[in-house]
Design a protein that fits this description.
12 helices; mainly alpha; single chain
Length: 270
């Protein structure tokens, strides 16, 4: 029994550290934007309610790769892991289109908020910047799901902690300005996050292609079109997972859409 606990703990602690690093992104954004202006802090709260809901819902679907790849890895069917991962990337491409449209044209969601014009404009700017980072976020989710499935959560943790190390200096640069960059306020957080997301995605794809452990999977060995049978299998697992994450998260985050009706200062306090 004790040996089983040790095995679980060895997999669990990197996941915990990685998730704390991800949560710290939002904490840093809130602390730093709060020093810039109340309006930007309120806009950040409204931005987060929309972005997190879209992000969690879509990336939750891609987590379906984890049990599929884990079962194949346990059965020693390594070549099939590459096939399933390629299909997950194809699914991520389709989800990217949905997510990009929701973030780049957020007016239907923001109409619930009835926010003042100045707050609305800052929110739209923030979300449109993040829309260009969403493809990278989805690609990284495929990477993290695969790495966790095959018992390599540390490879995810290292990147998440590395991204956190970049967050503070990039936030400082883009929020408050400097070196030829104007002070962007809240949207500066979005720009920093977008650059970090693309960095993590590129490094993650490099790990999948170059690290010896992943080579037997042949993830990038050939091109393949979507296989509908496998896409449906991913969706059957992923949609309930994504919806469960979405419901858990939006029960809190969507409150910002309604609190914004009480004004900028109230929303910033929330």
């Amino acid at each position: 029994m004790f040996s089983d606990v040790r095995k679980i703990a060895a997999l669990a602690w990197p996941v915990l550290i990685g998730q704390l690093a991800v949560i710290a992104f939002g904490v840093i954004d809130t602390a730093m934007v709060g020093r810039f202006s109340v309006t930007d802090l309120a806009a950040l709260g409204l931005d987060g309610s929309v972005y997190i809901s879209v992000y969690i819902g879509l990336t939750g679907i891609l987590v379906a790769l984890q049990p599929i790849a884990g079962q194949l890895f346990g059965a020693g069917r390594e070549s099939e892991i590459g096939d399933e991962t390629r299909q997950a990337f194809r699914l991520a491409a389709a989800l990217m289109i949905i997510g990009f449209v929701l973030l780049y044209f957020p007016e239907p969601l923001l109409s619930l908020a009835k926010a003042p014009p100045v707050l609305h404009d800052r929110t739209v700017d923030y979300l449109r910047i993040l829309s260009f980072g969403l493809p990278a976020s989805l690609a990284f989710r495929v990477y993290s799901s695969l790495a966790n499935a095959v018992g390599k959560p540390r490879l995810v943790m290292f990147l998440q902690v590395g991204g956190l190390a970049l967050k503070f200096p990039l936030n400082t640069w883009f929020i408050f300005g400097g070196f030829g960059v104007p002070a962007l306020g809240g949207p500066g957080c979005a720009l920093a996050s977008t650059l970090i997301n693309w960095t993590l995605a590129i490094v993650g794809m490099t790990v999948l292609a170059k690290v010896e452990f992943f080579k037997p999977f042949g993830i990038f060995s050939r091109f393949c079109w979507p296989v509908w049978k496998r896409q449906i299998a991913l969706l059957r697992l992923g949609i309930p997972m994504g919806l469960s994450y979405l419901i858990e998260v939006t029960s809190y985050t969507f409150m910002a859409l309604f609190i914004s009706r009480f004004g900028t200062t109230t929303l910033a306090g929330h």
